[in-house]
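Input.
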Amino acid sequence: MVDTALIEEVFGEASPVIKRYVDILANRGIDWGLIGPRERERLWERHILNSVVLEPFIPVNASVVDVGSGAGLPGIPLAIARPDLMVVLVESLLRRSVFLSEVV
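Output.
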């Protein structure tokens, strides 16, 4: 798990929301085959924080399209970190689309 202070710094008041998403991804994401079982321990560093690294460079109120969203990475963490953005998740595979519908 990553340092709580870093989560608070990046996600602010939305920290409980991103933590819930990580919990879902760490369990159901593995069950559904969206992430590998070895990814559980490195979700924060490898997936969540990497998803928001370019966030400071995205203009306010911009539209962002996450094509091939899969498990919602990077779209969901980005949308949580930046509620001003209009983030659209695009996924062609039914199983992944169902997961995204349930998570969002």
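The chain has one domain: 4-103.
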